[in-house]
Design goal:
Blueprint: E1 5-16, E2 19-30, E3 34-38, H1 45-52, E4 59-64, E5 70-73, H2 87-92, H3 98-107, H4 123-135, E6 141-145, H5 153-170, E7 173-177, H6 181-187, E8 190-195, E9 197-202, H7 204-207, H8 210-217
Parallel strand pairs: 3-7, 3-8, 5-6, 6-7
Antiparallel strand pairs: 1-2, 1-4, 8-9
Helix pairs in contact: 4-5
């Protein structure tokens, strides 16, 4: 594997309960990149992330760089919000030193809320907690499945800004599932348009045209490119 390639996927196919979820998917991810997976509901985006984590059986090749550590933030984790524990208590389950817990809480901006119960957090605070949890073992790669689902606009901006900050500070490689095109334009280096097969791949500004999005979603998609 080339020195800067952290993940190589070749001819990946996944079939679950007789249904073809992913077919003949190939791509590469380089160290420090943000790769976004874009597509309609049922396109296989979550299945792709879980397959990369080794959860689902597959045909083809998934080659991670030897020794790479991976963190994962799922799309939803609602049941944990009913557990009567504080943010600090939650992180102590990871069995990491107290100073590391403090440093992570500082990174995700929750030091002042560390004594707050999980169930009393805002959706944005809860998502930042999950991001911190994924960082606890110092991974080189983070996988995010729609990290701002159910979060208000202000919270969304906070979460995406945090991801960008962490990527730069920790030299993280990020694989991200999102529907937010403005986020893709601002943060992503590479995008895969997925609908069970790869509809298009490349740099966002080059491939995310009204025509390619219509092909991906099967209908006209209105979008606005944010200039920063």
């Amino acid at each position: 594997m080339k020195e800067n390639i952290i993940l190589k996927v070749k001819n990946l196919s996944v079939e679950l309960q007789g249904e073809k979820i992913l077919q003949n998917l190939s791509f590469e991810v380089r160290e420090g990149e943000v790769l976004t997976i874009l597509g309609p509901n049922g396109a296989g985006k979550t299945v792709l992330l879980k397959t990369l984590l080794g959860i689902f059986p597959y045909k083809g090749e998934i080659i991670w760089r030897k020794g790479v550590k991976i963190g994962y933030v799922p799309q939803r984790l609602p049941f944990i919000k009913n557990v009567p524990m504080t943010i600090e208590d939650f992180f102590r389950l990871k069995d990491i030193p107290e100073k590391d817990i403090r440093n992570i809480l500082k990174e995700i901006g929750l030091v002042e809320s560390s004594k707050k119960e999980i169930g009393k957090l805002s959706s944005g605070q809860f998502q930042r907690t999950l991001i911190g949890w994924a960082l606890a073992k110092n991974p080189q790669v983070l996988l995010f499945d729609e990290p701002v689902t159910g979060i208000d606009i202000k919270g969304e901006r906070t979460v995406y800004s945090l991801l960008d900050k962490l990527r730069k500070e920790r030299n993280l490689t990020i694989l991200l599932v999102t529907h937010d095109l403005s986020v893709i334009y601002k943060f992503s280096d590479f995008v895969i348009c997925l609908n069970k097969v790869s509809v298009c791949q490349g740099k966002p500004k080059e491939i995310l045209t009204p025509q390619s999005l219509q092909k991906l979603y099967g209908q006209e998609v209105k979008f606005y490119q944010h200039i920063h």
